[in-house]
Amino acid sequence: xxxxxxGRNGQLARAFIKTFETGSVDFSxxxxxxxxxxxxxxxxxxxxxxxxxxxxxxxxYNLVDQAEQEHEKALAVNALGAKHLAQxxxxxxxxxxxxxxDYVFDGLKESGLYTEEDKVNPLNEYGKSKLSGExxxxxxxxxxxxxxxxxxxxxxxxxxxxxxxEWANKNEYLKIACDEFSVPTHTDTVVNITLxxxxxxxxxxxxLTNSGFCSRYEWATLIAKCLGIKKxxxxxxxxxxxxxxxxPKFSAMTNLxxxxxxxxxxxxxQESVESFLRERx
Length: 281
Description:
Elements: E1 2-6, H1 11-22, E2 26-28, H2 40-50, E3 54-57, H3 71-91, E4 95-101, H4 125-140, E5 144-149, E6 152-153, H5 160-170, E7 173-177, E8 181-182, E9 185-186, H6 187-199, E10 204-207, E11 214-215, H7 216-227, E12 232-236, H8 256-262, H9 269-278
Parallel strand pairs: 1-2, 1-3, 3-4, 4-5, 5-10, 6-9, 7-12
Antiparallel strand pairs: 8-11
Helix pairs in contact: 1-6, 2-3, 3-4, 5-7, 7-9
């Protein structure tokens, strides 16, 4: 089985690469300067030469606030780039794994966590671009697995854990939103469940998160406890920050459909955060 990974420099791609290197798996993860998914001809050329059985799309434009001004660039990567990969996968009879986002929801659901059947209604340009990517991928490729993720963290600096540590070093106290809820999701969980799903021959759309949910404030307090950060953390409304992009206040997704079909128990968000941080203290 041969794997092609896009978005080599991102934290999710690095997690797949680490797992594949440890397991001596046949894979290729070209640098993003060589595999530009916005260029359909380049995508097709690389897929033609390498002949992967499975394409794992970890490439993404994820600058949520910047996307409000750069919505065309966000669409070019998250939607058009994903379409190029789906078309190449179809032409060369490969399976495509694509990752979506909880930001396809508006956060107004009150009767529980979001399921795969719930209505989508993104509030910002980033969410719109991710939803467009989902639609274009499903139109272009039948042999596809789409996983919606939320609050992803792993090795790297583009995640909330790293940012919180940086803020703590620079400020006397911290202000963290207490009315923004989702599910912190470890890259190792994403890799593990993705590979189990492929082994099980699954296709379609699933929510892939750690189990449970929390506020941004609850996540911050657990991080601070694990890292020994002594700074005061004040819970505030997310509206205090006046961010360019509107965010759903509650976008927590349930993984019950996925864990049920695989017959596995996915670790809680607390367990995964604590395990991840233990290795760094």
